[in-house]
Amino acid sequence: MIEISVTGLQKSFDLEKKILDGLTFQINSGERVGLLGKNGAGKTTLFRILTGGIDYDAGEVAIASDRRVGLISQIPVYPAGYTVEDVLQSAFERMRRMADEMERLSAQMANGDESEETLRRYGELSARFEGLGGYDTATAVNKVANGLSIPADMRTRLFDTLSGGEKTRVNLGRLILEDTDILLLDEPTNHLDLHAIEWLEEYLASFKGTVVAISHDRYFLDRTITRVIEILDGHAEFYNGNYSFYAVEKERRYLEKMRQYEKEQAKIRQLEAAADKLHLWAFMGNDALHKRAFSMEKRIERMRTTDKPTREKKMTAQFRSSEFLGDEVLALEGAPPGLEPEQQVLDTLGAEELTRMILDLREPYKTPCRLVLLEQHTMAEAARLCGRPPKTVEAQVYRAKKMLAQQILQNDRVPCERRSVHGTV
């Protein structure tokens, strides 16, 4: 059964370029589809069209009747004053309306209304309410909240005070709790930790409805989708597999198109050279050859059917140093055998004092810090009996060559309140 049908869809936000230009595809019941495309290709725009958020310029969009569509957007918005618990409970709005109607019908029956229509309607509502879990919504909310790492104290907070990641988790939980037939997931793994992502993957595996997901998480797509629709230049390209299959198949199609393009260009160059010779010979006195050359040039134009395929640009970055510095960042010299220098330095100086001393090493290997350490005796009991105090030894700390040291405090303040972020950096 076809649940989503899009035919010849066109949408533009300016007169120069159409984001969607004749987009056509179908999604069947129960399918797991990944919607891919570069940034700005129109993926989120398509989701907003499917949910009625925005209108489109031309084409047809059809959702199967009686199918409820739920959308996880990147920026969820709820009324002011809503707590996290309010947002989660809003998923049961449909069941609350059913419960209100059941209560009204129950009151009618208590007042003597025993008509067949009233009894039938009450029976239908009761069966649907129970099937949707209307009598045990608290268990469902707790299960989803635990799965998405929404603790009890967070459920009492105002939704507007949450961070972007927390809002995403709560909104995702609300959508899962709804009686939804089609899930539209726009970057659902953003701001989710590993536990929450694994829980979401398990939930989608058992979900009976249809899922369409936009995501840059290739591992999430590999585990959740079985088909890919790529929006490319406003049109749809189809791949019957998960993301890994898509990546391999896309490269294969690129190479095949490139071979076809190069073969076509080689034939065009050959014919162009022949046409040029015919024109040359015609100028030398055989005017009839002009007609053959013009005919050949028309043939060349008809052959130009394959556009040169292109690849998306990949970012390549290398991080390297102009000089190999070795593995050592700090060195401690002069400590006697048996001393545990790392712990002894921290115990003797403390972290703050050691940090200050390292920062003061402006010329590494030339002006080392001198530390006074307490020798750690392996024969602690013998030392106590002899009454000999711990021996003090002198050691030196060096900072690695060409290493710049900088301290970042946890509560650093911007020197000037009016300074911009860019200026501070």
Task: Explain what you see.
It is a single chain. With 425 residues, this protein is α/β, with parallel strands linked by helices. 42% of the residues lie in helices and 18% in strands. The protein has 14 helices and twelve strands. It has helices at 43-50, 84-89, 93-110, 116-131, 137-147, 164-177, 194-206, 218-224, 243-283, 288-303, 341-349, 351-359, 380-386, 421-424; strands at residues 2-12, 18-28, 32-36, 58-63, 69-72, 182-186, 210-214, 227-232, 235-239, 330-333, 369-374, 392-399. The strands form three sheets. The protein has a six-stranded mixed β-sheet with strand order 5-6-7-3-8-9, with helices on both faces. A three-stranded antiparallel β-sheet has the order 2-1-4, covered by helices on one side. Strands 10-12-11 form a three-stranded antiparallel β-sheet, covered by helices on one side. Strand 6, helix 7 (194-206) and strand 7 (210-214) form a beta-alpha-beta unit. Helix 3 (93-110) packs antiparallel against helix 4 (116-131), helix 5 runs antiparallel to helix 6 (164-177) and helix 11 crosses helix 12 (351-359). The model is unreliable at 363-368, 374-379 and 407-412 (pLDDT under 50).
